[in-house]
Write a structure and sequence with these properties.
Blueprint (H helix, E strand, L loop, with lengths): L6 H15 L12 E6 L10 H19 L3 E3 L3 E2 L4 H10 L3 H18 L10 E2 L3 H16 L3 E11 L4 E3 L4 E2 L2 E2 L7 E10 L5 H6 L9 H11 L1 E11 L5 E6 L10 E4 L6 H5 L5 H12 L3 H4 L8 E9 L6 E7 L10 E4 L5 H10 L7 E2 L19 E2 L10 H15 L2 E7 L4 E2 L1 E2 L9 E4 L3 E4 L31 E3 L6 E4 L3 E2 L1 H4 L3 H4 L12 H7 L2 E7 L5 H15 L9 E7 L2 E3 L2 E2 L10 H8 L1 H10 L7 E2 L2 H26 L10 H24 L2 H18 L7 H15 L4 H10 L23 E8 L2 E9 L4 H10 L3 H5 L4 E7 L3 E6 L1
Parallel strand pairs: 1-2, 1-26, 3-4, 12-14, 26-27, 28-30, 31-34
Antiparallel strand pairs: 5-6, 5-9, 7-8, 9-19, 10-11, 10-13, 10-18, 12-15, 13-14, 16-17, 20-25, 21-22, 21-24, 23-24, 28-29, 31-32, 33-34
This protein binds one RNA strand of 89 nucleotides through helix 7, strand 11, strand 15, helix 11 and strand 30.
Length: about 800
RNA sequence: GCCGGAGUGGCGGAAUUGGCAGACGCACAGGACUUAAAAUCCUGCGGUUCGUGAGAAUCAUACCGGUUCGAUCCCGGUCUCCGGCACCA
């Protein structure tokens, strides 16, 4: 007998067997209960890391378990294969992104297969393939035709030396992180998706997702950021112009002492004209131009602004207030203009102090410690209205509604809801992404490509210089085309799509991945959707998961998606750490999955990564822990190896005769129940594995017992292999075969357990005095409270425990304990 | 600043949410096997005090308080760490 099991041969043998037998291919079977299990597909960076191993091991255990429970499980895999790294490789090493990406996909596919993951590879998708992005373009055109995609001029970060657009992350302290030049703004036409039209539904439908972690739902709620308030019109003195502002605090309207417009507000030029402040305004605007969006909106940036030279009139109080522009007001939230109430808003307060503007309290804190005539900071808590005309004396909470109603009645304003969520800027001045299938014609404007002409293929004759706009403009063949409407000369959009679009609907495509005629057959999507369980990193809690929900809702609205919410249950797995830190090349603490698999095998890698920590928590990598998991699998192997010959011809049924038999019988059924519950209900894989370890310990003990039953041992070994098989599938197949089975164990059903086996004749109960454990006694099981108390009173040690004190009260918990309360 | 989450042995974690705190594993120690080592098997393993000893007492789930017969779990406060958002009017 070999000391250690030969994992390498065993694992490769069964991986080949599964592939050749097509064991994990999935069809729609109308009568079977479906289960769609999905892990987030990877970006093909080239090598699998431990985070992938963890993510896909979690999913695979669930998939294998559910199949054995008789579910028709869809478990697909694919590639989020457009993106910047491929293009950087092209710029640096001259490798075409397409080649680089496909090499990486091949490499990683091999690694995934080496982990023994039970995917249906026939449904594999890669977002960079024309057969996939064709439908991405089709969706975009649907967005456009439904008025959900629009083009808008917007300032982007532009490096004058590199001649390229920069992402916000590439602008550090106002300079280009590649060449150090000062980054400026350039107005470019960019495509947007109107995700804000869905803000309300994206928010309220979170309540329909009880299977999501509340943490993720809260993050999405905050991101969408719904605020209710009012829009109010202020007239600009001496003109008929109305300045519309948004406020969540209409109760403070009488405390407005100035107004502020965003520097980009369309009225700025006009209002500044003739006010005598033109030069200052101009200088201020020029200064802001050189700030990146990130710096512009940083809280640390000092509030700054200039007087526009004009005044506005408060519709309620009739008061005349100066109009400013300032860096702390944003054009793309609300109306791009605010009323400033320094007494009750800290930002306005800071600004007012700096520029010597009036501070007028209109809410009385009714607190003697606060001196309203000399505020040190804005008062933002509750109170009663003062200096507010007819609304004086109202609680400010009530005043919000009453003042809003009054504004509406008088035509000065209206109720309003605002979201923090912005429309989704999807244009990327990049090559390796889905071409936006739009064409610009001088006479017809922006026109979508005809659907029968899709896909708009990415050209291959482009240069990767890292300079200029989108590399697509260097293609000699791509840009020039004809207008789909009028047939006149026209040019194609050269920007590509944000890759987050590609990953916003791949789960739908898996339902019918090879369909060349449609995005997917709706019947097939109807069979599989929604995804019953989605598993991935928490870093996607906001963007990816929000975008995927948005796409699903849109596709639902246009009659394509059968569901409104894509993912019923969500598991966000924790990070894999080494020495308390995230594994990273720069720290040099990366553990390579390849090496672990070479040294210990895939089964050990899977087992360890699931045993070391619950799935949602961070996982501290431990080489010693891996050794432990490896030892355990060897321990199982030796046990089965020793017994297999004797078990082949042993009978299946047995009677528990000895005490050891009864213990073994109990341990077996306990383990089956525990593992079933832990995998099926709780996704608590670490405790499932410890339950299997306990079973193995019990079996080692039992095999030394006198008069042990071979039939009982056969039952124990058989069930042990079955319940371990989701975690260590290769070893379990091998052991299953060694018992004389000719077929894969993945044709087997998950074992049942017998409730009766878990009922013991006697149970140990605890005697407590005042809640402290004093004694344990064995009583027959099933006793009611009175019988338990009687048993305790009979016990020889009871009087001794009381030590002469009188019981005041006795509490009994059936099957568990009796607590005697004494003075 | 605002919103979440978490603090349990030397370590990873368990206790399926009010009922025996520390399952299972790692590390460590002792024993068996071995010429020896590795591997394997068995045993022990939170702290303090008492006892030669089987054992007994007592403290212990970040800290302080509360509710309860009983709190790792519920409530109030404090501290620390982690995550998200961050001039959103």
């Amino acid at each position: 007998m070999a000391d250690k099991y030969q994992f390498d041969g065993i694992e490769k043998k069964w991986q080949r067997h599964w592939e050749e037998a097509g064991l994990f291919k999935t069809r729609e079977i109308p009568d079977a209960e479906k289960y769609y299990l999905l892990e987030m597909f990877p970006y093909p960076s080239g090598k699998l890391h431990m985070g992938h191993v963890r993510n896909y091991s979690i999913g695979d255990v669930a998939a294998r378990y559910l199949r054995m429970k008789g579910k028709n499980v869809l478990h697909p895999m694919g590639w989020d294969s457009f993106g910047l790294p491929a293009e950087n490789a092209a710029i640096q090493n001259g490798i075409h992104p397409n080649l680089w990406t496909h090499d990486n996909m091949r490499e990683m596919r091999t690694q995934l297969k080496r982990l023994g993951l039970s995917y249906d590879w026939d449904r594999e998708v890669a977002t960079c393939e024309a057969e996939y992005y064709k439908w991405m373009q089709w969706i975009f055109i649907r967005f456009f035709k439904n008025g959900m995609a629009y083009k808008k001029k917007n300032p982007v970060n532009w490096c004058p030396s590199c001649e390229t657009v920069l992402a916000n992350e590439q602008v550090v302290d106002g300079v280009c992180d590649r060449c150090g030049s000062t980054v400026g703004k350039k107005d470019l036409e960019q495509w947007y998706l109107k995700i804000t039209d869905y803000a309300e539904r994206l928010l309220s439908d979170l309540d329909k997702l009880p299977g999501w972690p509340s943490k993720v739902k809260t993050m999405q709620k905050n991101w969408i950021g719904r605020s209710t308030g009012a829009e109010v019109d202020f007239t600009v003195e001496g003109t008929d112009k109305k300045l519309r502002i948004f406020t969540t605090r209409p109760d403070t309207l009488f405390g407005v002492t100035y107004m502020v417009l965003a520097p980009e507000h369309p009225f700025v030029k006009e209002l500044a004209a003739g006010g005598g402040q033109e030069a200052q305004v101009d200088a201020f605007l020029r200064k802001l131009q050189y700030l990146s969006d990130i710096d512009r909106t940083a809280t640390t940036l000092e509030k700054e602004g200039v007087f526009l030279g004009c005044y506005a009139v408060n519709p309620l109080s009739g008061g005349r207030v100066p109009v400013y522009i300032a860096n702390y007001v944003l054009m793309d939230y609300g109306t791009g203009a605010i009323m400033a109430v320094p007494a009750h808003d800290q930002r306005d307060f800071d600004f007012a102090v700096k520029y010597g503007l009036d501070i007028l309290p209109v809410i009385d804190p009714e607190c003697p410690e606060i001196d309203l005539s000399n505020l040190k900071e804005a008062f933002v808590a509750e109170g009663k209205l003062i200096h507010s005309g007819r609304f004086d004396g109202l609680k400010n909470r009530e005043a919000i509604g009453q003042i809003t109603d009054f504004l509406e009645k008088e035509g000065f304003g209206k109720k309003s809801v605002n979201f923090r969520l912005r429309d989704w800027l999807i244009s990327r001045q990049r090559y390796w992404g889905t071409p936006i299938p739009m064409i610009h014609c001088e006479t017809c404007g922006w026109v979508p490509e005809k659907e029968e002409n899709l896909p708009v293929l990415l050209p291959t004759d482009v240069k990767f210089t890292g300079k200029g706009e989108s590399p697509l403009h260097t293609s000699g063949t791509f840009r020039e085309t004809v207008c789909p409407l009028c047939g006149g000369p026209a040019v194609r959009e050269i920007d590509t799509m944000d890759t987050f679009l590609d990953s916003s609907w791949y789960f739908l495509r898996y339902c019918d991945a090879r369909n060349g005629a449609r995005i997917f057959e709706k019947d097939k999507a109807k069979y599989w959707m929604p995804v019953d369980q989605y598993i991935g990193g928490v870093e996607h809690a906001i963007l990816h998961l929000l975008y995927a929900r948005f796409f699903t809702k849109f596709l639902y609205d246009i009659g394509e998606s059968p569901v409104e919410e894509p993912f019923t249950r969500l598991l966000t797995q924790g990070m894999v750490l080494k020495d308390g830190k995230k594994m990273s090349k720069s720290i040099g603490n990366v553990v390579s999955p390849e090496e672990i698999i070479r040294k210990y095998g895939a089964d050990t890698a899977r087992l360890f990564i699931l045993f070391a920590s619950p799935p949602e928590k961070e996982l501290e990598w431990s080489d010693a822990g891996v050794e432990g998991s490896y030892r355990f699998l060897n321990r199982v192997y030796r046990l089965v190896d020793e017994w297999a010959p004797a078990l082949r011809d042993a009978p299946d049924s047995y009677a528990s005769v000895t005490a050891a038999d009864r213990e073994m019988h109990y341990a077996l059924h306990y383990a089956v129940r525990k593992v079933s519950d832990d995998i099926g209900d709780r996704f608590s894989f670490n405790t499932a594995i410890s339950a299997i370890m306990e079973l193995v310990n019990a079996m080692y003990k039992y095999k030394e017992a006198e008069n042990r039953s071979t039939a009982l041992m056969k039952n124990a070994v058989t069930n042990l292999i079955l319940i371990l098989s989701p975690f260590a599938p290769h070893l379990c197949e091998e052991m299953w075969q060694s018992l004389g089975h000719g077929q894969s164990l993945y044709g087997e059903r998950w074992p049942d357990y017998d409730e009766n086996a878990l009922i013991l004749d006697t149970v140990e109960i605890v005697i407590q005095i005042n809640g402290k454990v004093k004694e344990r006694i064995r009583v027959q099981s099933g006793l009611d409270q009175d019988a338990m108390i009687a048993k305790v009173k009979e016990d020889a040690r009871f009087e001794q425990l009381l030590a002469g004190r009188m019981p005041v009260k006795i509490v009994a918990v059936p099957g568990k304990l009796v607590n005697v309360v004494v003075q």
